[in-house]
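Ticket #4471: structure output looks truncated?

Reporter: J.K.
Steps to reproduce: submitted the chain below (569 residues) through the standard prediction queue, then opened the result file.
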Amino acid sequence: FACLITQVSTMDEEQKQPDADNDDANNTTTTTTTTISAATVTTTESSVEVEVMAVAPPEVLTHWNEVGNGLIKSQTVVWKAAVESLENVNKYLQTVPEARTFMEKYMSQIVGILVDQVPGKIGTHEKDCVQESLLFAIQNVAEDLNIQTAQTQGGRCLVMRTLEHCFSNKKNYFKSSKGNNNWHHHHHHHHHPMNAGMPELRVRLILKFHNIGGFTYLCKYMNQTVGTENFVELETVRHILAAVADLLPKPPSLNNNNNAAKKNKSMSAAEAQKRKAMEDDVINVGRSVMTFISSMTDDDLKKIPVDQLQPLQQDLQHIFDRLVVTRRDACYEFYEFWRNWVHKLINSPSLPLKLFGWESVNDLIDACERHRPPPRTFWVKNAGTAFANGLFDFSGAVTPDGYFQPIFLDRSNNQGAAEHIMYVHEIPQAEHPQQQAGHKLTLFRCTMRSQQKWWFLSEADEEQPGTDRDIDYYQHKSLKDQEEAYPPAAGWLTCRNAGSEPPPNLQAIGWMLPEGEERNTLEHQLAKWAISQAIVEQVLGDTTSHREVVARSTNLIQFLAKMCSREDG
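Returned output as attached by the reporter:
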């Protein structure tokens, strides 16, 4: 039948082709596989309020049985039947025991079959069925979590797999066409390759789950079951973290940076409240996962392969780094958790966990350095071109609470952040001949055609800064392996056309931080922690330290030495 979907992909092609033409005829008549007419109510977002029935009519029970038998016999489900069976679960879950039986036995299997479909290979009617089924499924999970957490002794939710199916961007139905390196796709030039998915439906499901309070119930459930075998499986936890990460607004892109800043200011109160509600969900899910990780004993940790622990930590970091601008306290709370967790790992008697702990120390150092605020001012001195000397002040996006606005572009590459860190010096009226007075000089970094990143001291062109129309006085070539995020202190060269020898030296002054926060940066917190916990002494003072541990501790020692030699203490 055209209306059957199957898990067996071989049936997929051949058997659906012949009746592709009379698809619609099939859908409108009652198909022989089901005893119900295919006409059902279309669901809209607002159809959460389903009337609760105390007893299910016999045809509903029969329908569940038929769907269940179809799944047992042939791993198939009729498109429309998927929708109806899940909609009926939604209606009767509170009151009819058979609704729960059907849901716990078959819902994850149905959803699994649906998300394995490829949208490009099914018709509109089928796509509607997938969407409606998944929206009901996500409501059913939320409802079940609500029911389980309301029980005095806390019940067990058996439909977490459904959530994993709906949240996983690896599923055929949600795959984005981008990462789809289809070797023959340059032959056909349409935008949607046949096997592209509909990632926007996944985002809609995540939003739906958020809107009906699903994440609130989920956190309650995780907090209730932490340390028991009812806790969510690790694999599912990762999908949940990936889902909440998608609730966060995308970081502003580099090109329209100014517009983004303007847009944020004009966010209405209602929008701000919506955003805060989403952030609350993200933070609470993150907290539940942190509680879970912290609750694990040494024996628990030994049972989990290290390559499953590390992604969890990265997922959490990814989320909380994105929150640093709007919810700094939550971000700092995550770093405190991370330091404590690392402390537990490096003190573990198990060598693999100890080594993982030391690798995490190095990740932690990198992460804290990435959060380092830029200097507030650069003092340019000794330049042959007299009017180039003076104070250059930070000119970039600043958060409402007085920090600089970091742009975490993505997890792997943080280099782009420096592209719009800029320092500006206005030439004072009195000191220099009239033609220079009032002109602005800038220190900025530019990516050259060779992909190398050079720093320039220039008078930037008003219309097209960063082009050949700038007047460059001095430049600094970055070495490939050390692309400086900020203007370097020495090693500048004079640009022949405009600058005069000698080139300047630069001195950084202060940090882009609110008053009083100078010693509370994540780097300072990390240094204080390492010193107060005597981390280095533990390694070096212990003759039994494993040489691999000693080898991995050098970064921390260098980090502490650097921190101690900084002017700001």
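Triage note (M.O.): checked the attachment and the full token line is present. The CA atoms of residues 52 and 94 lie 7 Å apart.
Status: closed, working as intended.
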